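Notes on consecutive records. When two proteins share a document, each keeps its own sequence and its own token line. Never mix them. Below: protein one.
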Amino acid sequence: MLTLQAKKFETISSSDTVAILCTQEQIDSNSFIPQPLSDVFAIINTKTFKAKPNTYFFAALKDKPSILLVGLGSHKDITPESLRNAASVIVGACSDKSVSEVHIVVPEINVTNDTARYIAEGVYLANYAFNRYKTQKEETSPLLEKAILLSDNPGQLSPLLKEVSIVCSNTLLCRDLVNEITENANPLTIAKLAKKIAAQSKIKCTVYNKKDIEKMKMGLLLAVSQGSMYPPHLIVMHYKGAPSKKDSIALVGKGITFDTGGINLKPSGHIETMRTDMAGAAACLYTINAIAQMKLPINVYTVIPLAENMISHTAYKPGDVFTAYNGKTVEIGNTDAEGRLILADALSFTEKKLKPKAIIDIATLTGACIVSFGEIVAAYLTSDESLSTALFNASETTGEKIWRMPLYKEYNEEIKSDIADIVNVPAVRNAGTIIGATFLKNFIENTPWAHIDIAGTSWYSKNRGYNPKNATGFGVRLLYEFVKNFGVR
């Protein structure tokens, strides 16, 4: 893992690489040059560098620090996200030049008070590769080992960098789990991983096996898993950061470790990446780990239903009817709408048994969400305004973009069944993301609840700034920020 530190300029030596983020205005006026490096810039012609976003200028000098200039564009266009993306350029440039340690000057810009945080986040999140199955390691780009932020007040940055390191390292671990092959990321191995994480971070962890799930009459979770060689599991993790308080927040994550679509088989072009259908579970797992490592004074539950949706002679079928944990009967309109089924049992269990003051579920639920928002934005739906505001504020802070969709009661008419209480997918495929959330709402009675659909944001088809191609770890920073602020009310 990357080491983040903060130091003063006096520590710079001739063997170091110094990265400076600068705007075009600063290049034109030479106002970006730190005083301790004025002698270095006296021999560098920077006028040819156009400080456009995602560009850099590198100068390796004999007996002097190497200089890396990174463009921020125009001053008026600087945002937290542009700072994170500029920091990712530093990581890419260091990789290109085989630099393992970089000193980064924290720029003085009158845009935000959290400049150092955004830069540190961008560096940490961009410094990632999933290459454990590559045998030719020389084909992989080297990663940074240390990033040192240069500041006049390094002591003030230390707590900030600690939090960035903990939250972002858990984001990278989330990426690892989502990228992992199903042989090593299935209901059995993820249950073992949860126990390991809990033991290391002093979190209480209970894993319910198939017999337990049968006793609890979670008919939907059992139905989805019945075609697989792997039995279902239900993980319940409890971090008690405020033991004197009764209130808690619950995070519920969809954990389909591979989704064939079942009898309604997914076609080529869609099935290849379905090991990622547990991205919501992974986000919840590493969010509670980050919360525990930061010792936040908040009580948090994480509930993760785990199953594999496979095809076999025992697989559940369209037209079947199953009884959920809360007693409602569900007709199966399509076996590829399995995520909402396992979440339904988990949500009603969470509300009835754990009694949190708020429930957030996060899931790679619908392809319709990708149609609506692509890979850039996650959908969220809730009838609770305080949850909506808190989630959106967390999104604005972290850059993990979410956008609210409606959850009108009229949509309940769409999921009525002829032979059961409700159907998991209606015959007419309209408003897919909203219908998915409407189905889940039937398994929440009175607790404030929100649903986040990360079908597009959890997995990128290409690199986007500080987020890599493939697993992004979306949700860890969002949920951490939400819990951190909402939980202290």
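Protein two starts on the next line and is unrelated to protein one.
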Amino acid sequence: MIHTRWRQAGFAVALVCAALSGVPASAETVRIGAVKVAANGANFIAVDKGYFAAEGLDVQITFFDSAEPIAVAVVSGAVDFGATGPGGALYNLAGQNAVTIISGLAREAPGFPVFVFAVSNRAYQAGFKSYENMAGRTGSVTQLGAPSHYAYALLQQKYGVDPKSVRILPLQSLPNQVSAVSGGQADSGIILATVAIPAINRGDMTRLGYVGDETPFQTGILFTSTKTANEKSDLVQRFLRAFRKGAHDYRDAFIGPDGKRRDGPASTEMLGIIAKYVGQPPEQVKGGISYVDPDAALDVNDILRQLAWYKAQGMVKSDVSGDQVIDKRYVIPAGPR
């Protein structure tokens, strides 16, 4: 009888703790792999505002320093969903029917600083003051085939720079990029703004511009394992419903009806939520707010262009198809902006 009472008391305590946390006692644990950037604000908001909990999901976020390890973590089962940029590693895994894109996240667009093009002070003083000047110099990315690598290619095409004239250094993480550009070991870096802006504000390196102002593209996606997409449709749908509520809050807070950057009435609250997760002051976070489509729609045409570019560079196998990369059961295609 005593043991029974203790078990009942323990169960009651568990229920109270679950109620106080906003997560149902029977909630299903779901893990997201992400990078600490404002572009992931929709996920942070959905956790903080209880949207995931309302769908019976106890969401836990695991942070990584770059995109490629997140794709590997999704395949291994270390995390259930990935929230980061697409790249060569992800497209190759999609070609093996290991992962698939289920939603858009953030996009490069004018007025929304996702990626900043930063140059070392030494290189800037030596004349690296425009995108055309990248020829004959070194650039840096987290990994070859990362979204920032694709961004270099877009800028090179726009400004007539021979890609062979730029040596791209894969530095494995965003903090390594900041250190390399600040120290002059790399002449430039295309770095997520949330991470780069503190060093720029300190004067450790120089901002040349924002990629979105020059050449918009889909920089952020949500993806999961193909096995999860096929076998756990209800879980994926619940996850996306909650995530899209967070995306709506994010958009209402930071983007006007015309699609341009504008702070709404809830912007202070949302900045506070995002700041808590990325570990930066709200004013700093404010400088890295990304563009998010209504319902976090995906720019399907750009993803297909990215896939074609990676194939042309020999980074992705030629037989990988768009249908393997994009799961049309879940993705909402973006219309013209």
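For the record: The longest strand covers residues 28-35.
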